[in-house]
Amino acid sequence: MTTDLAWAVPISMIGLVSFSVTYATMPWLIKSLTQAGITGIDFHKPGAPKIATMGGIGVFAGLAAAITVSAILPLNYRFLFAIFLSATLAVLVGLLDDLFRLGKTTLVWLTFLFGAPVIAFQAGSTIVYMSPVGPADLGWVFWILVPFAYAFLMNGVNIYAGFNGLEASLGAITAMSLSISAILYGSIESALSLLALSGALLAFLRWNWFPAKIFMGGSGTFLIGAVLASSIISGTIKLAGVVALTPYFINFVLRALDRFTWSVGETTPNGEVVSKKRNALWALFMYKIPTTEPYVVRRCLLVQLMFGLGAIVFAYYHVNFALPR
User: Distance between CA 73 and CA 10 in Å, rounded?
Assistant: First the structure.
């Protein structure tokens, strides 16, 4: 396990490819989805306007282009194919949900299956570095836990949504911080996949930030969860992943305490948002105090940034001072 910072440049170029393709795709996608009547309601705007949804298609286009271009690099393509196949399955199911509104139980069970490519290709190591205890080989137990990791992450990303720019920017910060962590660990395939995802999400935010012109939809949230899960499992960034994903876990617990009741708070007559319950992480920033939608999103991003930076610091310490040379 070695840190090779020389990979930072080619991986950054791959991220630029995903950014460029998604950026070029979005205007056409917004127009096409709107004309086809594939829209969602923006509950936090006056009059609850309908805007295009299924924007995850554009994010996937950028990711697919970036991973295709990465064929010019000397990488482990077994790992990359497993990550890409998992992401593809996630997008397909997300599209089905966007179009036909699959039941919650059906979606949860399906998310258990998205780890199948990673398991089938044995993409990743069963060794978990439990600093300062040392490495622990979980063996077959590790592969049994993989579907549960996918189910948590994909559903965790999906329920941490509901505001303009929230899920895309949270995903971009998480993917970027874990990409840097992966470079520090020498997990280049994971770093490339994560940065490709981050680049596509940053381009998507051009049209998804307040006031949004397109929503991500299940195709996008499931895609984020699948790439994060497969990259963490395939790479040596499992503990760093736990650190970076802590806000998702906190939100998951808050939503679970409220029995996963769907809610995006309420909108006041003057366009502010407020929540009567602390039933989500975003709800903590608008609990009984009306505020603006961008304010809530920025506070959520600040929390995610703190944990993302924490993951990078942990990875740096772990690589340089805790792991055996």
Answer: 8
